[in-house]
Amino acid sequence: MCGIVGIYSKSPAVSDQLGRHLSDMLVQMGDRGPDSAGIAIYRDPVADGLCKLSLHAPDAEVDWDAVIAELESALGVISHRIVGPQHALVAVAADAATAQVHLAATLPALAVASAGSTIEIYKDAIRPAEFAERFALERISGTHALGHTRMATESKVTTAGSHPFSTGQDVCLVHNGSLSNHNRLRRQLREQGMAFQTENDTEVAAGYVAWRLRDGATLHEALEGCLEDLDGFYTFAVGTRDGFAVLRDPIACKPAIMAETDDWVAMASEYRALAVLPGADEARLWEPEPATVYSWGSAAVPS
Amino acid sequence: MTADGLTAEQIVTFDLSEAKPRELNAVLHDPDITSATYRVINPGGRHSIAVGAVAPVSVDIDGHAGYYCAGMNQLAHVRVRGNAGTGVAENMMSGTVVVEGDASQSAGATARGGLLVIEGSASARCGISLKGADIVVRGSIGHMSAFMAQTGRIVVCGDVGEALGDSLYEARIYVRGSVKSLGADCVEKPMREEHVAEVAELLQRAGIDDQDTADFRRYGSARSLYHFNVDDAQAY
Predict the structure, then answer these.
(1) I need a labelling partner for A33 at 20 to 30 A (CA). Which of A50, A202, B26, B173 fits?
(2) Backbone dihedral region for residue B41 (phi beyond 0: left; psi -120 to 50: alpha; all else: beta)
(3) What's the total number of domains in chain B?
(4) Active-site residue identified among A2, A51, A172, A226
């Protein structure tokens, strides 16, 4: 099953409370995905040439002080925040590619959940309500955010297999559904130089979008490409540095509902996750059409 | 007395910000209930509101309902003053269900009797596997609607998405607007006098009085898919 949510702020008041809104939405979707939860939030951009890394230690507790010291000597650490025993956010004085190559070589036990100027990703194989509390989501502010509650079907219940997936800078994707051609597509994308960390089908979709963006497509074009090249069921919510988009496959088995007010745009698997937002009663509500890309921010189609 | 001619004692209010849908449904499962009207406030998109009612009572839902609202309904008159999620009135047996807003996918799925009225639009798979109920949609309906629909009638005042009536049996479909495409074995058929009368009767029962029955077209099964054809014997 799985539940997905996304919110894009259009007002400072909503941005200030973004984490609380995201948390409320995520908890409402707990029934749809009790085995894991994860979020991507966009906030606090770093300067050009720097990079924010969301690091995750999948297997065991890690000595974060030693990790930070190592990154400080090799790349230079601008700031860091240890977010519990298995997660840390580090801003380094290097570009994302350099940082990721260095991490893969020197700290291979660490997974890089996201890299970019604004994105942060946190995920864990725990119940969504517990997740929201552990990561103190209500205290986070930001411009836009995605969330996912997982009921695993295609790969193991692990934090690494949880959503969101990010395989390109500041690009990430959450997915409700299952893809059937992900093995072949993963192989083809690897031949194109894309790297994957798991056997998960959704990571392949994120990799596909990142690959198309790398080759110059707009987010809108990349998502239209999904309609041609992905086989399976999907409702996607996608985030970029300053954009937000939603796509459903042509069969549209997987649910989605969207709402917009003057202050925010939001999508969710079900209305009850939108009902908790301020002004939901007066929001414009609609069910996204199959095989149609909806986008906001820089991801929007120029009119 | 209220405007409906009921005494205040006959109206029971369920606030779903406090009560669970199951508590409401347990009451509606009693065929001997005496109150005439159940008012449901703060539905908040919760699932399975007013499922399995068995008595001729009114259930008035003040807001948006989640999945399977008024499923398996018998005799009750359910009104949703908002949108309904997946599978509204699924497997309805009798009574009426009115959705004042839009309905999500699989509205009226497998419904066997009664009337489902959607005053907004319905999305994909409206009336899938319909087994005898009537569905009237004031707006439009999505793709794969009336898939394998067996009996019953569907009236759509707006447009229809792709693959209408795929693998259709004997349900009758009337559409006023455009049909994006017909599914396998679904064909347009002539509107005879009895069909115009049928549309008029269904619109009247749905409380829609601003449509011209002459604008509707009829779709039904070509009956080439579900009959055994001896020429195809080798294919089995």
Answers:
(1) B26
(2) beta
(3) 2
(4) A2
